[in-house]
Protein backbone atom coordinates (compact mmCIF):
# COMPACT_ATOMS: atom_id res chain seq x y z
CA UNK A 1 0.00 0.00 0.00
CA UNK A 2 1.30 3.46 -0.90
CA UNK A 3 2.79 5.39 2.00
CA UNK A 4 2.87 9.15 1.47
CA UNK A 5 5.87 11.09 2.73
CA UNK A 6 6.49 14.41 4.40
CA UNK A 7 8.26 17.04 2.30
CA UNK A 8 10.96 18.57 4.48
CA UNK A 9 14.08 20.44 3.38
CA UNK A 10 13.44 19.50 -0.25
CA UNK A 11 13.24 15.77 0.46
CA UNK A 12 10.43 13.24 0.76
CA UNK A 13 10.85 11.53 4.12
CA UNK A 14 8.98 9.28 6.56
CA UNK A 15 7.77 10.61 9.92
CA UNK A 16 10.32 10.37 12.74
CA UNK A 17 7.85 8.28 14.78
CA UNK A 18 7.45 5.75 11.90
CA UNK A 19 3.72 5.85 12.67
CA UNK A 20 1.11 5.96 9.90
CA UNK A 21 -2.56 6.85 9.51
CA UNK A 22 -4.96 5.08 7.14
CA UNK A 23 -6.27 7.11 4.22
CA UNK A 24 -9.69 6.20 2.79
CA UNK A 25 -11.21 6.24 -0.66
CA UNK A 26 -14.71 7.49 0.26
CA UNK A 27 -16.24 6.16 -2.96
CA UNK A 28 -15.47 2.62 -1.77
CA UNK A 29 -15.18 3.09 1.98
CA UNK A 30 -11.78 1.39 1.83
CA UNK A 31 -8.27 2.25 2.93
CA UNK A 32 -6.03 2.78 -0.10
CA UNK A 33 -2.93 4.54 1.24
CA UNK A 34 -1.31 5.73 4.44
CA UNK A 35 -0.02 9.10 5.56
CA UNK A 36 2.70 10.00 8.06
CA UNK A 37 1.49 10.51 11.62
CA UNK A 38 3.86 13.40 12.15
CA UNK A 39 4.45 14.92 15.56
CA UNK A 40 6.13 17.90 17.15
CA UNK A 41 9.61 16.55 16.20
CA UNK A 42 8.71 16.57 12.49
CA UNK A 43 7.46 20.15 12.78
CA UNK A 44 10.74 21.07 14.46
CA UNK A 45 12.69 19.48 11.60
CA UNK A 46 10.57 21.40 9.10
CA UNK A 47 11.03 24.60 11.09
CA UNK A 48 14.83 24.27 11.10
CA UNK A 49 14.80 23.73 7.32
CA UNK A 50 12.50 26.70 6.77
CA UNK A 51 14.52 28.97 9.05
CA UNK A 52 17.71 28.07 7.18
CA UNK A 53 16.08 28.72 3.81
CA UNK A 54 14.54 32.06 4.78
CA UNK A 55 17.48 34.50 4.33
CA UNK A 56 18.11 33.40 0.74
CA UNK A 57 14.45 33.03 -0.25
CA UNK A 58 13.42 36.39 1.18
CA UNK A 59 16.24 37.99 -0.82
CA UNK A 60 15.48 36.40 -4.20
CA UNK A 61 14.58 38.96 -6.83
CA UNK A 62 10.90 39.28 -7.62
CA UNK A 63 11.60 37.84 -11.07
CA UNK A 64 13.26 34.72 -9.66
CA UNK A 65 10.48 34.14 -7.14
CA UNK A 66 7.85 34.66 -9.79
CA UNK A 67 9.61 32.23 -12.13
CA UNK A 68 9.60 29.39 -9.57
CA UNK A 69 5.89 29.90 -8.86
CA UNK A 70 5.16 29.88 -12.59
CA UNK A 71 7.16 26.64 -12.93
CA UNK A 72 4.95 25.07 -10.27
CA UNK A 73 1.82 26.30 -12.08
CA UNK A 74 2.99 24.96 -15.39
CA UNK A 75 3.89 21.52 -14.02
CA UNK A 76 0.51 21.34 -12.30
CA UNK A 77 -1.14 22.23 -15.58
CA UNK A 78 0.79 19.47 -17.38
CA UNK A 79 -0.25 16.94 -14.75
CA UNK A 80 -3.81 18.25 -14.43
CA UNK A 81 -5.53 14.97 -15.28
CA UNK A 82 -3.45 12.93 -12.82
CA UNK A 83 -4.01 15.50 -10.09
CA UNK A 84 -7.75 15.60 -10.79
CA UNK A 85 -8.01 11.82 -10.63
CA UNK A 86 -6.09 11.79 -7.36
CA UNK A 87 -8.27 14.55 -5.88
CA UNK A 88 -11.47 12.82 -6.89
CA UNK A 89 -10.38 9.48 -5.42
CA UNK A 90 -9.14 11.03 -2.18
CA UNK A 91 -12.15 13.26 -1.58
CA UNK A 92 -15.05 11.46 -3.30
CA UNK A 93 -15.89 14.47 -5.50
CA UNK A 94 -16.93 13.95 -9.14
CA UNK A 95 -13.90 13.73 -11.40
CA UNK A 96 -15.44 16.37 -13.67
CA UNK A 97 -15.44 18.84 -10.77
CA UNK A 98 -11.78 18.19 -9.97
CA UNK A 99 -10.91 18.50 -13.68
CA UNK A 100 -12.84 21.72 -14.22
CA UNK A 101 -12.69 23.50 -10.88
CA UNK A 102 -10.28 22.19 -8.24
CA UNK A 103 -7.05 21.65 -10.13
CA UNK A 104 -7.43 24.52 -12.65
CA UNK A 105 -7.98 26.80 -9.66
CA UNK A 106 -4.82 25.50 -7.95
CA UNK A 107 -2.92 26.31 -11.18
CA UNK A 108 -4.49 29.79 -11.18
CA UNK A 109 -3.54 30.37 -7.55
CA UNK A 110 0.16 29.88 -8.29
CA UNK A 111 -0.05 31.89 -11.52
CA UNK A 112 -1.99 34.68 -9.90
CA UNK A 113 0.51 35.18 -7.08
CA UNK A 114 3.49 34.76 -9.43
CA UNK A 115 2.16 37.88 -11.20
CA UNK A 116 0.72 39.67 -8.16
CA UNK A 117 4.08 39.72 -6.38
CA UNK A 118 5.57 41.72 -9.25
CA UNK A 119 2.77 44.31 -8.92
CA UNK A 120 2.65 44.62 -5.13
CA UNK A 121 3.75 48.00 -3.82
CA UNK A 122 3.83 49.89 -0.57
CA UNK A 123 2.95 53.44 0.46
CA UNK A 124 4.96 56.62 0.86
CA UNK A 125 3.76 59.68 2.83
CA UNK A 126 5.40 63.02 2.40
CA UNK A 127 4.92 65.24 5.46
CA UNK A 128 4.69 68.50 3.55
CA UNK A 129 6.29 71.52 5.23
CA UNK A 130 8.37 69.34 7.58
CA UNK A 131 11.02 68.12 5.17
CA UNK A 132 10.06 64.60 6.08
CA UNK A 133 9.27 61.56 4.02
CA UNK A 134 7.80 58.33 5.34
CA UNK A 135 7.80 55.13 3.38
CA UNK A 136 6.60 51.67 4.28
CA UNK A 137 8.64 48.54 3.85
CA UNK A 138 6.70 45.30 3.48
CA UNK A 139 8.93 42.65 5.03
CA UNK A 140 8.18 38.91 4.81
CA UNK A 141 7.30 37.58 8.25
CA UNK A 142 9.71 34.62 8.32
CA UNK A 143 8.40 31.10 8.81
CA UNK A 144 4.61 30.90 8.56
CA UNK A 145 2.06 28.11 9.00
CA UNK A 146 -0.71 27.19 6.53
CA UNK A 147 -3.43 24.75 7.60
CA UNK A 148 -6.23 23.69 5.27
CA UNK A 149 -9.42 21.56 5.22
CA UNK A 150 -10.64 18.59 3.14
CA UNK A 151 -13.43 20.01 1.00
CA UNK A 152 -11.37 21.70 -1.74
CA UNK A 153 -8.01 20.15 -0.87
CA UNK A 154 -5.41 21.48 -3.32
CA UNK A 155 -7.50 24.53 -4.24
CA UNK A 156 -7.44 25.87 -0.66
CA UNK A 157 -3.97 24.57 0.22
CA UNK A 158 -2.44 26.47 -2.72
CA UNK A 159 -4.60 29.55 -2.00
CA UNK A 160 -2.49 29.98 1.17
CA UNK A 161 0.88 28.62 0.10
CA UNK A 162 1.15 30.66 -3.10
CA UNK A 163 0.79 34.13 -1.48
CA UNK A 164 2.92 33.10 1.52
CA UNK A 165 5.79 32.11 -0.77
CA UNK A 166 5.20 35.04 -3.11
CA UNK A 167 5.64 37.45 -0.19
CA UNK A 168 9.05 35.90 0.57
CA UNK A 169 8.17 33.66 3.52
CA UNK A 170 9.15 30.07 4.14
CA UNK A 171 6.20 27.83 4.87
CA UNK A 172 5.22 24.87 6.99
CA UNK A 173 1.97 23.58 5.57
CA UNK A 174 -0.44 20.92 6.76
CA UNK A 175 -3.20 19.57 4.53
CA UNK A 176 -6.21 17.82 6.03
CA UNK A 177 -5.40 14.28 7.14
CA UNK A 178 -8.65 13.26 5.41
CA UNK A 179 -7.48 14.43 1.94
CA UNK A 180 -3.65 14.44 1.88
CA UNK A 181 -2.97 13.07 -1.61
CA UNK A 182 -2.70 16.15 -3.84
CA UNK A 183 -0.61 17.96 -1.21
CA UNK A 184 1.81 15.04 -1.42
CA UNK A 185 1.81 15.20 -5.23
CA UNK A 186 2.45 18.93 -4.94
CA UNK A 187 5.66 18.15 -3.00
CA UNK A 188 6.90 16.16 -5.99
CA UNK A 189 6.02 19.06 -8.30
CA UNK A 190 7.86 21.58 -6.10
CA UNK A 191 11.02 19.47 -6.25
CA UNK A 192 10.73 19.24 -10.04
CA UNK A 193 10.00 22.99 -10.31
CA UNK A 194 13.27 23.89 -8.57
CA UNK A 195 11.78 25.40 -5.41
CA UNK A 196 14.84 25.74 -3.13
CA UNK A 197 15.10 23.26 -0.26
CA UNK A 198 13.25 24.22 2.92
CA UNK A 199 11.22 27.04 1.36
CA UNK A 200 8.05 24.94 1.50
CA UNK A 201 7.66 22.05 3.92
CA UNK A 202 4.57 19.86 3.94
CA UNK A 203 3.97 17.89 7.13
CA UNK A 204 1.13 15.35 7.24
CA UNK A 205 -0.78 14.18 10.28
CA UNK A 206 -3.59 14.84 12.72
CA UNK A 207 -4.85 18.30 13.55
CA UNK A 208 -4.48 17.97 17.30
CA UNK A 209 -0.91 16.68 16.93
CA UNK A 210 0.95 18.17 13.99
CA UNK A 211 -1.50 21.07 13.45
CA UNK A 212 -1.34 21.96 17.11
CA UNK A 213 2.49 21.79 17.03
CA UNK A 214 2.54 24.33 14.18
CA UNK A 215 0.16 26.68 15.97
CA UNK A 216 2.06 26.41 19.27
CA UNK A 217 5.52 26.82 17.77
CA UNK A 218 6.95 30.01 19.32
CA UNK A 219 8.84 31.03 16.19
CA UNK A 220 6.10 30.47 13.62
CA UNK A 221 4.77 34.00 13.62
CA UNK A 222 1.69 33.80 11.41
CA UNK A 223 -0.97 31.17 10.85
CA UNK A 224 -3.33 31.09 7.92
CA UNK A 225 -6.11 28.63 8.70
CA UNK A 226 -9.19 27.44 6.85
CA UNK A 227 -11.50 25.00 8.58
CA UNK A 228 -14.33 24.72 11.09
CA UNK A 229 -15.37 27.51 13.47
CA UNK A 230 -14.73 25.40 16.59
CA UNK A 231 -11.18 24.58 15.44
CA UNK A 232 -10.65 28.26 14.57
CA UNK A 233 -11.74 29.26 18.07
CA UNK A 234 -9.30 26.76 19.59
CA UNK A 235 -6.49 28.03 17.35
CA UNK A 236 -7.19 31.64 18.30
CA UNK A 237 -7.07 30.72 21.98
CA UNK A 238 -3.62 29.21 21.50
CA UNK A 239 -2.11 31.68 19.04
CA UNK A 240 -3.53 35.03 20.20
CA UNK A 241 -1.68 35.18 23.55
CA UNK A 242 1.50 34.51 21.56
CA UNK A 243 0.64 37.61 19.44
CA UNK A 244 0.72 35.70 16.19
CA UNK A 245 -0.83 37.09 13.05
CA UNK A 246 -3.97 35.06 12.35
CA UNK A 247 -6.13 34.64 9.29
CA UNK A 248 -9.16 32.47 10.01
CA UNK A 249 -11.50 31.34 7.23
CA UNK A 250 -14.23 29.42 9.02
CA UNK A 251 -17.68 27.90 8.58
CA UNK A 252 -20.80 29.35 7.04
CA UNK A 253 -24.57 29.00 6.94
CA UNK A 254 -25.17 31.08 3.88
CA UNK A 255 -28.58 32.47 2.94
CA UNK A 256 -30.05 32.57 -0.58
CA UNK A 257 -32.71 35.26 -0.92
CA UNK A 258 -34.98 34.60 -3.90
CA UNK A 259 -37.35 37.39 -4.95
CA UNK A 260 -40.30 36.99 -7.33
CA UNK A 261 -38.79 39.49 -9.79
CA UNK A 262 -35.65 37.40 -10.46
CA UNK A 263 -34.62 35.68 -13.69
CA UNK A 264 -36.36 32.48 -12.60
CA UNK A 265 -34.68 29.94 -14.89
CA UNK A 266 -31.19 31.22 -14.18
CA UNK A 267 -31.96 31.31 -10.45
CA UNK A 268 -33.29 27.74 -10.42
CA UNK A 269 -30.33 26.31 -12.32
CA UNK A 270 -27.80 28.12 -10.13
CA UNK A 271 -29.64 27.33 -6.90
CA UNK A 272 -29.41 23.60 -7.63
CA UNK A 273 -25.66 24.06 -8.10
CA UNK A 274 -25.17 26.31 -5.06
CA UNK A 275 -27.00 23.70 -2.97
CA UNK A 276 -25.35 20.48 -4.07
CA UNK A 277 -22.04 21.16 -5.84
CA UNK A 278 -19.26 19.07 -4.28
CA UNK A 279 -22.00 17.23 -2.30
CA UNK A 280 -22.81 20.55 -0.59
CA UNK A 281 -19.34 20.58 0.93
CA UNK A 282 -18.31 24.08 -0.13
CA UNK A 283 -18.14 26.71 2.58
CA UNK A 284 -19.95 29.05 0.15
CA UNK A 285 -22.89 26.75 -0.61
CA UNK A 286 -26.24 28.44 0.04
CA UNK A 287 -27.76 26.17 2.65
CA UNK A 288 -30.66 28.34 3.85
CA UNK A 289 -32.98 29.18 0.97
CA UNK A 290 -35.56 31.90 1.58
CA UNK A 291 -38.18 32.44 -1.13
CA UNK A 292 -40.71 35.26 -1.59
CA UNK A 293 -44.14 33.87 -0.67
CA UNK A 294 -45.74 34.60 -4.07
CA UNK A 295 -43.42 32.15 -5.87
CA UNK A 296 -42.73 29.78 -2.97
CA UNK A 297 -44.98 26.87 -4.05
CA UNK A 298 -43.80 27.04 -7.66
CA UNK A 299 -40.16 27.19 -6.56
CA UNK A 300 -40.66 24.30 -4.17
CA UNK A 301 -42.09 22.04 -6.92
CA UNK A 302 -39.47 22.99 -9.51
CA UNK A 303 -36.56 22.75 -7.07
CA UNK A 304 -37.66 19.26 -5.97
CA UNK A 305 -38.06 18.18 -9.62
CA UNK A 306 -34.60 19.44 -10.62
CA UNK A 307 -32.95 17.97 -7.51
CA UNK A 308 -34.48 14.56 -8.20
CA UNK A 309 -32.80 14.60 -11.62
CA UNK A 310 -29.32 14.75 -10.03
CA UNK A 311 -27.36 11.52 -10.33
CA UNK A 312 -25.43 10.33 -7.31
CA UNK A 313 -22.74 7.84 -8.26
CA UNK A 314 -19.16 6.76 -8.59
CA UNK A 315 -17.00 9.92 -8.81
CA UNK A 316 -15.13 8.77 -11.91
CA UNK A 317 -18.34 8.42 -13.97
CA UNK A 318 -19.15 11.37 -16.21
CA UNK A 319 -22.86 10.96 -15.39
CA UNK A 320 -22.35 11.52 -11.64
CA UNK A 321 -23.51 14.97 -10.52
CA UNK A 322 -22.71 14.11 -6.92
CA UNK A 323 -20.05 11.69 -5.69
CA UNK A 324 -19.45 10.43 -2.17
CA UNK A 325 -19.21 12.60 0.95
CA UNK A 326 -15.72 12.72 2.38
CA UNK A 327 -15.77 10.21 5.25
CA UNK A 328 -17.92 7.80 7.22
CA UNK A 329 -17.87 10.09 10.25
CA UNK A 330 -18.98 13.04 8.13
CA UNK A 331 -21.75 10.99 6.48
CA UNK A 332 -23.04 9.99 9.90
CA UNK A 333 -22.96 13.59 11.10
CA UNK A 334 -24.99 14.75 8.08
CA UNK A 335 -27.49 11.90 8.53
CA UNK A 336 -27.93 12.76 12.20
CA UNK A 337 -29.09 16.26 11.23
CA UNK A 338 -31.53 14.81 8.70
CA UNK A 339 -32.84 12.22 11.16
CA UNK A 340 -33.47 14.98 13.67
CA UNK A 341 -35.52 17.05 11.21
CA UNK A 342 -38.96 15.94 12.26
CA UNK A 343 -38.32 16.79 15.91
CA UNK A 344 -37.81 20.36 14.73
CA UNK A 345 -41.15 20.57 12.93
CA UNK A 346 -39.35 20.34 9.63
CA UNK A 347 -40.38 18.21 6.66
CA UNK A 348 -38.09 16.30 4.35
CA UNK A 349 -39.32 17.10 0.83
CA UNK A 350 -36.88 14.90 -1.05
CA UNK A 351 -33.81 12.79 -0.27
CA UNK A 352 -32.71 12.14 3.28
CA UNK A 353 -31.13 8.71 2.91
CA UNK A 354 -27.86 6.95 2.32
CA UNK A 355 -27.55 5.43 -1.16
CA UNK A 356 -25.99 2.08 -2.00
CA UNK A 357 -24.07 2.26 -5.26
CA UNK A 358 -23.48 -0.98 -7.19
CA UNK A 359 -19.94 -2.36 -6.73
CA UNK A 360 -19.26 0.46 -4.23
CA UNK A 361 -21.59 -0.71 -1.48
CA UNK A 362 -19.37 0.56 1.35
CA UNK A 363 -19.03 4.06 -0.20
CA UNK A 364 -20.41 7.14 1.54
CA UNK A 365 -23.21 8.26 -0.78
CA UNK A 366 -26.10 10.47 0.28
CA UNK A 367 -29.22 11.65 -1.53
CA UNK A 368 -29.42 15.38 -2.17
CA UNK A 369 -31.89 16.53 0.45
CA UNK A 370 -34.34 19.42 0.69
CA UNK A 371 -36.01 20.13 4.02
CA UNK A 372 -38.86 22.58 4.55
CA UNK A 373 -38.48 24.39 7.85
CA UNK A 374 -40.99 26.48 9.74
CA UNK A 375 -38.51 28.61 11.67
CA UNK A 376 -35.05 29.99 11.06
CA UNK A 377 -34.23 29.37 14.71
CA UNK A 378 -34.17 25.57 14.32
CA UNK A 379 -30.92 23.63 14.53
CA UNK A 380 -31.08 22.82 10.80
CA UNK A 381 -30.88 26.56 10.01
CA UNK A 382 -28.49 27.58 12.76
CA UNK A 383 -25.75 24.93 12.54
CA UNK A 384 -23.44 24.20 9.62
CA UNK A 385 -24.28 20.75 8.18
CA UNK A 386 -21.78 20.92 5.29
CA UNK A 387 -23.38 18.19 3.22
CA UNK A 388 -26.00 17.79 0.45
CA UNK A 389 -28.75 19.24 2.63
CA UNK A 390 -30.56 22.56 2.23
CA UNK A 391 -33.60 24.06 3.88
CA UNK A 392 -36.32 26.20 2.34
CA UNK A 393 -38.87 28.56 3.82
CA UNK A 394 -40.97 31.49 2.54
CA UNK A 395 -40.69 35.20 3.43
CA UNK A 396 -43.25 38.00 3.13
CA UNK A 397 -41.15 41.00 2.16
CA UNK A 398 -37.60 42.36 1.86
CA UNK A 399 -37.45 43.41 5.48
CA UNK A 400 -38.28 39.92 6.72
CA UNK A 401 -35.86 38.34 4.20
CA UNK A 402 -33.02 40.47 5.55
CA UNK A 403 -33.90 39.68 9.14
CA UNK A 404 -33.94 35.92 8.44
CA UNK A 405 -30.68 36.07 6.48
CA UNK A 406 -28.83 37.88 9.27
CA UNK A 407 -30.32 35.85 12.11
CA UNK A 408 -27.40 33.41 12.42
CA UNK A 409 -23.95 33.37 14.03
CA UNK A 410 -22.19 32.99 10.70
CA UNK A 411 -21.43 35.65 8.07
CA UNK A 412 -19.52 34.18 5.16
CA UNK A 413 -21.52 34.71 1.96
CA UNK A 414 -25.04 35.52 0.81
CA UNK A 415 -26.77 35.29 -2.56
CA UNK A 416 -29.59 37.56 -3.73
CA UNK A 417 -31.81 36.86 -6.73
CA UNK A 418 -33.67 39.97 -7.93
CA UNK A 419 -33.92 42.24 -10.96
CA UNK A 420 -34.51 45.30 -8.77
CA UNK A 421 -31.24 47.23 -8.64
CA UNK A 422 -32.24 49.37 -5.66
CA UNK A 423 -33.08 46.25 -3.67
CA UNK A 424 -29.84 44.58 -4.74
CA UNK A 425 -27.89 47.60 -3.48
CA UNK A 426 -29.86 47.89 -0.23
CA UNK A 427 -29.30 44.22 0.59
CA UNK A 428 -25.64 44.26 -0.47
CA UNK A 429 -25.14 47.03 2.09
CA UNK A 430 -27.06 45.42 4.93
CA UNK A 431 -26.49 41.66 4.64
CA UNK A 432 -24.06 40.50 7.30
CA UNK A 433 -21.61 38.63 5.08
CA UNK A 434 -18.09 39.01 3.73
CA UNK A 435 -19.23 38.22 0.19
CA UNK A 436 -22.55 39.05 -1.47
CA UNK A 437 -23.45 37.58 -4.85
CA UNK A 438 -26.29 39.16 -6.80
CA UNK A 439 -27.81 36.99 -9.56
CA UNK A 440 -24.79 34.70 -9.56
CA UNK A 441 -22.90 32.31 -7.30
CA UNK A 442 -19.28 31.24 -6.82
CA UNK A 443 -18.28 33.84 -9.35
CA UNK A 444 -14.72 34.63 -8.27
CA UNK A 445 -12.16 37.23 -9.28
CA UNK A 446 -8.95 36.36 -7.44
CA UNK A 447 -8.14 40.05 -6.85
CA UNK A 448 -11.13 40.53 -4.52
CA UNK A 449 -11.06 40.25 -0.72
CA UNK A 450 -12.30 36.84 0.41
CA UNK A 451 -13.46 35.98 3.91
CA UNK A 452 -16.21 36.18 6.46
CA UNK A 453 -17.52 38.17 9.41
CA UNK A 454 -19.09 37.04 12.72
CA UNK A 455 -18.27 33.36 13.41
CA UNK A 456 -17.11 32.87 9.82
CA UNK A 457 -13.69 34.25 10.57
CA UNK A 458 -11.21 37.05 10.84
CA UNK A 459 -9.14 38.57 8.05
CA UNK A 460 -9.30 38.34 4.29
CA UNK A 461 -7.54 36.25 1.70
CA UNK A 462 -7.25 37.04 -2.00
CA UNK A 463 -5.45 39.63 -4.10
CA UNK A 464 -3.13 41.99 -2.27
CA UNK A 465 -4.96 41.28 1.01
CA UNK A 466 -3.09 37.98 1.30
CA UNK A 467 0.24 39.63 0.45
CA UNK A 468 -0.46 42.21 3.16
CA UNK A 469 -1.26 39.43 5.64
CA UNK A 470 1.96 37.60 4.85
CA UNK A 471 4.13 40.73 5.25
CA UNK A 472 4.86 42.99 8.19
CA UNK A 473 4.67 46.72 7.42
CA UNK A 474 7.54 48.81 8.73
CA UNK A 475 7.43 52.58 8.46
CA UNK A 476 10.68 54.42 7.82
CA UNK A 477 10.66 58.15 8.54
CA UNK A 478 13.46 60.31 7.09
CA UNK A 479 14.04 63.99 7.70
CA UNK A 480 16.06 65.79 5.06
P1 LIG B 1 -11.38 21.21 10.65
O1 LIG B 1 -11.45 22.47 11.42
O2 LIG B 1 -11.75 19.94 11.30
O3 LIG B 1 -9.91 20.97 10.08
C1 LIG B 1 -9.25 21.93 9.28
C2 LIG B 1 -7.75 21.71 9.40
O4 LIG B 1 -7.35 22.03 10.72
C3 LIG B 1 -7.32 20.28 9.14
O5 LIG B 1 -6.09 20.27 8.45
C4 LIG B 1 -7.14 19.73 10.55
O6 LIG B 1 -6.23 18.67 10.63
C5 LIG B 1 -6.59 20.97 11.26
N1 LIG B 1 -6.75 20.97 12.72
C6 LIG B 1 -7.67 20.34 13.48
N2 LIG B 1 -7.45 20.57 14.79
C7 LIG B 1 -6.36 21.37 14.86
C8 LIG B 1 -5.63 21.96 15.94
N3 LIG B 1 -5.97 21.74 17.22
N4 LIG B 1 -4.57 22.73 15.65
C9 LIG B 1 -4.22 22.96 14.37
N5 LIG B 1 -4.85 22.41 13.31
C10 LIG B 1 -5.92 21.64 13.55
O7 LIG B 1 -12.25 21.46 9.35
P2 LIG B 1 -12.62 20.43 8.21
O8 LIG B 1 -13.66 19.50 8.75
O9 LIG B 1 -11.38 19.89 7.62
O10 LIG B 1 -13.27 21.40 7.11
C11 LIG B 1 -14.61 21.76 7.08
C12 LIG B 1 -14.82 23.15 7.62
O11 LIG B 1 -14.03 24.07 6.91
C13 LIG B 1 -16.24 23.63 7.47
O12 LIG B 1 -16.63 24.26 8.65
C14 LIG B 1 -16.16 24.66 6.35
O13 LIG B 1 -17.12 25.66 6.35
C15 LIG B 1 -14.80 25.22 6.57
N6 LIG B 1 -14.31 25.87 5.38
C16 LIG B 1 -14.23 27.25 5.35
C17 LIG B 1 -13.80 27.89 4.21
C18 LIG B 1 -13.68 29.39 4.15
O14 LIG B 1 -13.02 29.89 3.25
N7 LIG B 1 -14.27 30.13 5.06
C19 LIG B 1 -13.42 27.15 3.09
C20 LIG B 1 -13.53 25.76 3.16
C21 LIG B 1 -13.96 25.12 4.30
TrEMBL record:
PROSITE patterns: ALDEHYDE_DEHYDR_CYS, ALDEHYDE_DEHYDR_GLU. InterPro entries: Ald_DH_CS_CYS, Ald_DH_CS_GLU, Aldehyde_DH_dom. Pfam families: Aldedh. It comes from the Bacteria. Residues 19-476 form the Aldehyde dehydrogenase domain. The keyword Oxidoreductase applies. Keywords: NAD, Oxidoreductase. The active site is at 249. Belongs to the aldehyde dehydrogenase family. This is Aldehyde dehydrogenase. It comes from Mesonia aestuariivivens. The lineage of its organism: Bacteria, Pseudomonadati, Bacteroidota, Flavobacteriia, Flavobacteriales.
